[in-house]
Design brief:
CATH topology of the largest domain: BirA Bifunctional Protein, domain 2
CATH class of the largest domain: Alpha Beta
Shape: globular
Strand content: 25-35%
CATH architecture of the largest domain: 2-Layer Sandwich
CATH superfamily of the largest domain: Bira Bifunctional Protein, Domain 2
Structural class: alpha+beta
Distance between the termini: 55 Å
Number of helices: 20
Amino acid sequence: MLVLTLPDGSTREVAPGTPARDVVATIGERLLRAAIAVSVNGETLDLGTPLRTGGSFRVFTERDAESLAVLRHSGAHILATAVRRLRPDARIGFGPAIDDGFYYDFGVDKPFTPEDVEAFEAEMKKVIAEKYPFVREEIDRAEANKRFVDDPLKLERIADLGADEVISTYTDGPFIDLCRGPHVPDTSYLKHFKLLHTAGAYWRGDEKRPMLQRIYATAFWKKEDLDGYLFRIEEAKRRDHRVLGKTLDLFLFSQVSPGSAFWTERGTIIYNELTEFVRERQREHFLEIKTPLLYNKSLWETSGHWGKYRENMFLIHNKETEELDSSLKPMNCPSHYVLYSAKKHSYRELPKRFVTFDVLHRNELTGALSGLTRVRQFQQDDCHVFLMESQIAPEVQFLMDFILGYYETFGLTAKLKFATRPEVRVGDDAMWDRAEQALEAALKSTGKAYELKAGDGAFYGPKIDFDVEDSLGRAWQLGTIQLDYAAPERFDLQYTSEDNTAHRPVVIHRAVSGSFERFIAILIEHFAGAFPVWLSPEQVRVLPIADDLAPVAEEITKKMKAAGIRAHLDARSDTLNYRIREGEMMKVPYMAVVGKREAEAGTIAVRERGQGKKQEIVSVDAFIARVVDEVRTRALPLKVEAAG
RNA sequence: GCUGACGUAGCUCAAUUGGCAGAGCAGCUGAUUUGUAAUCAGCAGGUUGUGAGUUCGAUUCUCACCGUCAGCUCCA
């Protein structure tokens, strides 16, 4: 008999081979109706699966995240069912659930058209209405080869299965698929779904193998969730930094230098404000340096980049030797080590923190380039800390506070990930023990939740990654704190200790924004282009109502500029409505309207971005004081425009 | 890099089966003097991404190159 332990501690004894459904039935009638799948010892099984092992037993309903993956996986089968009906020639590949939905790969001679996809979606609705049960069957290898004789991709998969693995199939109506499961009980469970787009995908991700046609889709239990998801996709499109970058006139790209942004005078203000902000925050405890962009290959040989990273470096041709023997730097670290090594360092100087905003170049694959988020030329707020091993814990804590405080300025929250030793690594276990303990202790001391990513560390040391979530709930990996024991060896870094002997420092790599380029892309999307006042390229637009008020408006504009405000006069002879519309579309935070009444009273009518007709009559001086204060405190907009 | 789609005025987009390349916005000129999201009129704007080819004729068809976008990791 198998013994199953329920979450409340009670147990059930059942004969091996009993379907999970029968166990759920003993718990409760309502639960049985709500059940989607079960978990036995952490493995998700569907209700029809015969139980083989005992152990902890849980029932998943719609409320559990696990059952959404089950639904989506069933959605993939329903998609394949529909595709097979309309295109019997399609060979079936894989169809898993993914983070935001599911996909299915098909081998077809001609790619699917958007019309095909619409037809598939309509056909899926029929399959759902027909309410086919998902029937699991366990078969032997010979039988499996027979059943999938027309599906070469499946036969290949069967051949890869280990001798002791259970081979199972799932059938829903006319469609049978080799599948481990689990699945929802029948096709009618899929109610709210949407086919999203198609794309080519190599069979098993290998570019040497045939290209399949992948159909991406998503599904949810509730209509609201599906609608919300589709809305977020639309909202993300509306906020796309590549679109806003153009309409707000911030940056552009040109064929003459793919992957490298041209920053307009407006975008450059944002770029400079950000760097200035970082510079200001780093003034006290960091040492800003500048190092060359171009290096002989000898540096990259020392660092190891020449062997491992050359593909991604821009190499420079040497006229005399006819060789590609130098390169633009793709990272700052080696140049920082050179500068550090140029002098003897006392233990009293440590930790020593070098920071740089130097330009970096990485020769990314053309297909990888995407707006500002994946570029070939960029700047990081890059820091390398040289310190004694005993200083790791307080230093990590210091850096964490620094990074989290930075994100707070933008209303961004970060999730922390702690990545520990990977299988391939340098250094002995004792070193890794010390490093991981120091990092984890610092993490714990912040009191913040963090996720453990065992084995995900760099080969040279463990790290903490900062995943930042924007106003649409999308995660971006930005900051990082990485311990590095390998670089000090390679570069023979030293410091002189109290007893006058040479010692090896440890290096910490720290980035906060990731790159300014990518960070600005995230800010554009996060704020939907409506930047806080301190970052806005244009902070105030002054609008005289009629031409004869232009001189007064000009005086007001001058006064604002004298106070350091980025104010512009718009005295064009277009209507006020027209000029206001343009100011709103350019997301200028404040418009100061000057009419006859205001001119006489020394006031302005302030219109705040996104607040419509609501206006406020204030004195010019009071308004200037207010804007200057908002800039000084780097105040966030009253409400960051939420999705909607 | 690979697969697919796409590339037309500064921007967003049109252009039957191959037959003189258009519109809105932006720009310029003029009129209008405006009270909180588009005043009116006129003008100008292009070797249709680049280069070959097919054709009497190519934005349209073919090929190559450049670029953009979606993917190429989430395993029956």
